[in-house]
Amino acid sequence: MTDAQLIREIKDGNVQLYAELIARYERKILSFIYHMLKSSNLESMAEDLCQDTFYKAYRSLHTFREVEASFSTWLYTIARNTVLSELRKNKKMNISFEQTGHEPSSSAETLPEQTVLRKEKVLLVRDAINNLPEKQRSALILREYDQLDYQEIANILGQTVSSVKSLLFRARASVRLQLEPYFLEPIFNDYEGMNQR
Amino acid sequence: MNCNEIQKSFGIYWDLPDDDISRYQVQQHIQSCAACAEEFAIWKESAELIRQAEDTRSISLSEGRIPGMVMKRIYEAESWRIPVPERLYMISDKLRRNLIFSIAFCLGLFLISFLFSIAYGNGTLHEDPFVFGLHPVASAEADADSMDGFAMSSAVASLTDPTFLNTATAHSISQSMLAISIIGMVSTLLIMNWVSRTEQ
Q: Contact, B173 vs B164, CB < 8 A?
C-alpha cells in the first residue's frame, strides 16, 4: 500500500493503519530530530519529540494535500517546527547543559595514529555542524543524512531551491573552515619528511 | 570556467548528478590545475567527514515503540476509535469484588436449584393439571331439568371471558427451582462474558 492509499484509508476512519505509516518514517524522523537537537545537548528528548511530531501529523492529517508535497516532506516540516519550538522553549528557560561529547570509546593509546586523527576530525565536524546557524544545519542534515533533494529541502525550509544551494554551500564552507588546521598538517608533515630526506 | 568559478562549485559538487555539465567541467579543470586540485581534495575530505559525522550510536529504536506510544495517545484522545477487539473497560476493585460475589451467588443458585429439582422432582405446590395455556370456559348455564315447573327460555348467566390464559411460570417446587437455576446460569455466563473483556 502506498503512502497516499494509507492516508486515504486513515482519513476514512481506519486509524489503525497510522501505525504502519509511523513505522515507515520513524527512523528517518528520529534521526533528523536527534541531529537537530544535538547542538543544544537535548538529544535525549529526541524520542519524545518524534512522538509529538507523529501525533501532530495525525491531528493535522486532514490538512495534508498530496499535490502540494509528499508525506515525508510534510512530516519533516512538522518535525523541524516541533524541534524549533522546543529549542525556543528551552532557550527561554535558560537551562545550562553539561557538555556531553561522544568521545571514542576505546583508549587513544591503543589506536593507530591515523585512526585517532580521523576520530578527532569527525568530532570536530560534529561540533562544526552543531555550531552552524539553524537553517544551514537543517539543510545539511536533510541533504547529507536524509538524502533529500534540493526541492524537498526547499519545501521543508520554506525556501527556494537556489537559497537551499546557497545554504548548503555556506554550511559546507563553514565545516571546511573548521577543518583547515587539520588539512594543513599532512602538508606540513610531508614538508618535514622532505627536509629529512 | 576560471579557477574562482570552479572553486565556487566545490560546495555543491557532490549534490550534482553524474551527467551534470558543471561536474564534468570541474573534473576537467582539476586535471590541469594543481591549486584547484588541492582545494578540491580538501573539499572532498571535508564532505566525507560530514557524512562520517552522522552519529547514530545513541539512536536506539526499539521495534514498535514509537508507533505504539503515538497510537496510545490517539486512542486516549479519541477513545471511540479503539478497535472493538482491543476495547477494554476499566473496573474498580470494589466492582470486581461485587462481580465475583454475584457470579458465585448465581452459580450457587444454579447448583442448589438444579440438585434440588433432581432430588425432589415429584414435590408439588398443588395438583393442577392445567398449568399453562388456555383454560376451558366456566359455564353457569341453568339446567332446564332442575327448574321444577318453570320454563325459562333464556335463563343463562355465563362468565364474560370466553377463555382464560394462565401465565404463571411454574406451579411446582421443582419447576421453580429449575427456572431459578437457568436464570442463575445465564446470569453467570453474561457476567463472565463481560468480565472477560475487562482489565484491572
A: no
Cβ-Cβ contacts under 8 Å between A and B: the total is 105
Q: Per-residue pLDDT averaged across A39-68, rounded?
A: 86
pTM of model > 0.80: no
CATH number of A108-197: 1.10.10.10
Distance CA(A81)–CA(A92), nearest Å, equals 16
Q: What is the 3-state secondary structure (H, E, C) of A45-113?
A: HHHHHHHHHHHHHHHCHHHCCCCCCCHHHHHHHHHHHHHHHHHHHHHHHCCCCCCCCCCCCCCHHHCCH
For domain A1-95, which CATH number applies: 1.10.238.10, 3.40.50.150, 1.10.10.10, 1.10.1740.10?
Answer: 1.10.1740.10
Partners of residue A58 in chain B, C-beta under 8 Å: 70, 74
Which residues does chain B have within 8 Å of residue A145's beta carbon, measured at their own beta carbons?
A: 54
Domain residue ranges of chain B, discontinuous segments joined by +: 3-52, 89-124+164-200
Q: Is there a contact between A19 and B42 if contact means CB atoms under 8 Å apart?
A: no
Q: Which of A150-159, A162-171, B63-72, B89-98 has the lowest mean pLDDT?
A: B89-98
Cβ neighbours of B51 in A, within 8 Å? 144
